[in-house]
Structures are given as C-alpha cells and as structure tokens.
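Table S5 (text form). Sequence records supplied for joint modeling of the two-component complex.
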Amino acid sequence: MSRIDAIKRHLVEEYELGTAPAELADDYDLLRNGVIDSLALLTLVSWLENEYALDIDAADVVPDNFRTAASIDAFVAAAVTTAKVG
Amino acid sequence: MALPLAERIATVARRHPENPALFWQGRTVSYRDLLAMSRAAEKSIAALRVPEGIPVAAVAAKSPETTAVLLACMRAARPVLVPPADVGDKALRTLLADTGALVLPDPRTLTTGTADAAVAARPAAVRVPDGTALILTTSGSTGLPKAVPLPAAAVGAFAEWSASTFGIRVGTSVLSYAPLNFDISLLDVWTTLSHGGQVVLVEQERTAHPGHLLALLQQCPVDVVQGVPMLFQLLAAAEKQARGDEFAAVGEVLVTGDSLSPGGLAALPRLFPGARLRNVYGCTETNDTFVHEIDPAGDPGRYGTVPIGRAVEGVCADIVAEDGTVVAGPGRGELIVTSPFQTSGYLDPAQHAAAFVGHPDGVTPGPYYRTGDVVTRHPDGVLTLDGRSDSMVTVRGIRINTAAVEGALRSHPEVADAVVVALPDERTGKRLHAVVHRAAGSLLNSLRLREHVAAELPRAGIPSGIEFVDAPLPRTATGKIDRRTVANSL
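The corresponding structure-token record, covering 576 residues in total, follows.
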C-alpha cells in the first residue's frame, strides 16, 4: 500500500468516515469539511510521528500542512527526506 | 351551569339535530345522538357523587363515547383531565396527584348508564383553579407529563377565534387526527362541534396507516385538515394509492407542531390544489398564537424556511435576547407570549414560576409564557422558528443550534430526514452526532454530506460523526423526532 493510501485508511478509521479509503479524494478538504479540528490535528501528528518515525517540529504543525491527504503525504515526504539528510 | 362551549353545542343540537356531529368507523353520529350520549354520561357521573369542584379524569382513546363524556363534564362545569390514552401508570399517578382528579369509569359504560356507581378513593386537595374546563397534558422535559388547566373562558375565546379564522361553521367537515389530550383537538373537535361542523375522527391506533387515512377520506371528505408535518408526509405517501379526489374538498390546511421539511412543503400544493395553506404556531400552554399564510414558492427563498408569521389578534409576543432585554426590531432570541387562550398556569408553583413570567419591562401586563423557542424576527416583522432554546449547545466554545445543523443536513437533496444530538466529549465538551435517513436508493456518503453542510455552517457545527440509516427516524406520538430514543441508541 502506498503511503497516501495508508494515510487515507488511518483518516477513515480514526474519524469514522464510514467510507472506503479509496473514496477519500487526494484533495478532499479535511479542515473545511470538519473531519479534523485543531485538537484532532495533534493526535494526527503523533500518529504520523509513530508511523513514519518522524520528529515533527511544532512550528510545522500548521493546519495547511494537513488540509488534504495529498498535503499530509507531501508533508511526510518532506519530513522523511529532511530526517535522512539530517 | 353549563360552560359556554357546552351551551353552544346544545344550541347547535337544538337547531340542527339531524346534522352529523361525528364520523366514526363508517357511520355518523348526529348532534341529537351526541347530546343524548352526553346526557346519559352526565347522569352516570352525577351518580358517582364526586364532590363539587373535584376534577375527573377521562383515560380513554378517542371515540364518540369519550367525546360525549368530555362534553358531559363541560355541561356540568366539572373540570376534566385528559391524559394521553396510553398514559403509563407512573405518569398517570403524577397527573392525578397534581390535579386531585378521580378517574372516571370507561366512557362506554358512562354513556350507556351501566357504570358502577361506586365513588373512587377520596381525592387529595383540589389543585385546579375555579373555572377550569379542560386539563390537557404536555410532555415535561423529565419525561413525565405536566397538567395544563385551561379556563372555560380561554377555551371559549379560542373556539370563536379559530372558527372565524379557519372558516368553521355549520356543515364544515374537519379531520380530527390528533388525540384528545392534544391542544390541536381544541380546534378539530371543540371548535367544530360548537360551530355545527362534523368531526371526522381518526382511530388512534391507526394514525400511522396511510391506507386507513385514505379510506376514511374516501368515505367522508373533509374541508379542514390540521396536522403535524408527519400527517402530511403520510398523506403524500398515501397519495400514490389514491383515487385522486380524496383531498379535492379540502379548503383549509393547517400545519402545526413542528417545522415543515422542504420536501413536505413542496408536496402540499400538489396534495391540496384547492386549499389555503397556513402554518400555525402555538403550544398547549397558550394555544395558537401565530399564523402564517404559506407561500410554497416564495417562503424558502425569502425566509429560508416556512415562517410562523405574525402574532394573531389579541396575542402579545416579544423576543427576549440572551441578556434579558427585549429585541425591538429585527433580531433573534427566545419567544415569550401571552394569549387570550392561555392556561391559568402549571399547578406546581416552582414549575409555574420558571415558565410564566412578567414582561421584562416590568410594566406590560402578563403573565408571559416562556416558549423555550428561539425565533428570528425578519425586517418585515415576520418570525421564523430557529429551534428550541435547549437545542443550543456549545461545541469548542462556539454556540451551535442543533436545529440549524439538522436544517443544513436536511437541505441536501438526498437526505430524507436528519437528527443531531450533542454527546458529551472529553476533548470538546460536546460533540455533535448526526443520524441521517438517506433518501431511497441514495449512495450519499459522509464526505459529500460534509461538503454540503460546510457551505452552510460554522466549522464547529459540522457533526463529528455522521451515521446513515435507511429507515425513518423514530418519532414521538406528536410526530416530532424522538431525540431521547436516538440518543439512547448511540
């Protein structure tokens, strides 16, 4: 399973969206549509840290990085790269 | 001395003895027969030797006999408590203790003179004010019904107002869908009988059967239909098996008790092509206080919903903002009303003091009833109902009206019905959970529905959980969504 699919599966299960992960579009706005609120963002960040062995800087925990499955995936991709370089 | 309403019915019976008073199970009961039954019941009740002024209770389903017993009580100026026919033991005990009423024998034995003439247990102190005609009941927030005594003068004034407003006169045929303990029956039954019309009684056990309603209307066409939105949904469903002319005679349609859904509104002009459509707002404590002439094409665009309209003549109403001040122009707050049709008040002093208040200006005479309904006054003076004040919940510090969330969900074309309940949540205080009845065949998912409501609501108003069901939501006897059952099932 690709990373974005794993992220989608987590989102669908964690927030009880009641749909198949594939139905969650890459660009579905998770914030505007009330799937993730600011508190849920924190639990999502800690899941990402565990799942992808990241140490996410609090300064990066801004809503726009987590607006869609695609942006979360891109954020993780960047974080993973930084971690390897660092 | 008989109450004025009973006098009027006796006058109708003298002038038009052969006219039908009731239609029941395929036959008519003439005014002469109704009065004869009522006289027999009056005698039977007198034989019980209930001390003067002590209320009695008629615990029985709607029927000609039950109607005759209530009329007998009004003829004898004896206050009569009308609990729900299916009232539970605990609720009945509470009502009897609150009112001091004695339970009458079965109406069928009273009207045929076969009732056992033994007096029931001596009641506690009389709790009902002088001049009380009917004691109706309303569901309390605790689940136990509250007694609402209605003075004879209030019932009489209501009958006069409603007859002239809705054109009820000799020969007018009126559907009686609601049970006798509902304030709706004041119009359906008592206004009609005191003005010489015919009451077409729906059997209480069969109110949810569209086929029964259709058959009844085929046997006996009606001129006036008053009902909760659920009745009109049932009639719209029945229409598919209809002959086509069942509703042709209907000249007056009164929607009451709850907000009409967009789908229900759209169905009305098609169901009742010849009818004047009106939305009527009121409650047991004040009876009808607002009337709005429904404009099916214009109302949703102009007001976002079907308004409750303007206060009827004789009714004073104000909107009280959260800070306790009266909203003068357009604005929003809790509706308080005082009406000529009003109850003398709850029997429990603490409950009474919480609901019946003086006008906030300290001058205008009252008492005003706090409806608990949140309304908006539009620039043209028309009021719309936003929901119950107790439907306000705070989610993440933002005040959300769950009724508005339900409205947003219901406005999706693939949503047949929706209910939103606020569940305790350790993170956010409250979280909103929606149960959505999808339209038949719809594959609507939570993602698309979220997008729909996100366009209409603040983010805190988007339910955290959306659950789909493909069956109708549970409803109470009055046709309102049964929130308690929904909440308990979660």
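Note: Chain B touches chain A through 18 residues (CB under 8 Å).
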